[in-house]
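hey
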């Protein structure tokens, strides 16, 4: 089991930027990847981005490509999401997620709210 602690959400105007952070807490974590999902009101939770821990391979959903950048700090088991050129359509609760090599399924954070005003 891993505990995921998110930070960095908030309110920003359209065109602005935010940086989300998520620290994975636990003993002897063997992380396969970490990333982000989001859920807007009335919509299903959707994949945003992820990064593999060993080789740093990043993936993105099409709607954020070129605007969002995912990165990792292997030493501190932390994943970041730099979000630029935000639009109101990016407004959602953003969840950090992790997959470990030693278990199946995903672990989830509590979520951090991102609100983009027009």
């Amino acid at each position: 089991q891993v505990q995921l602690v998110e930070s960095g959400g908030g309110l920003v105007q359209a065109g602005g930027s935010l940086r989300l952070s998520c620290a994975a807490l636990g003993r002897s974590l063997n992380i396969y990847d970490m990333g982000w999902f989001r859920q807007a009101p009335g919509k299903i939770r959707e994949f945003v981005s992820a990064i593999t821990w060993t080789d740093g391979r990043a993936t993105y959903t099409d709607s954020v490509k070129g605007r969002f950048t995912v990165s990792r700090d292997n030493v501190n088991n932390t994943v970041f999401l730099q979000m630029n050129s935000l639009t109101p359509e990016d407004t959602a609760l953003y969840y950090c997620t992790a997959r470990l090599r030693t278990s199946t399924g995903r672990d989830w954070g509590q979520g951090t709210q991102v609100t983009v005003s027009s």
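DSSP finds no helices and eleven strands in the chain. The mean pLDDT is 96.
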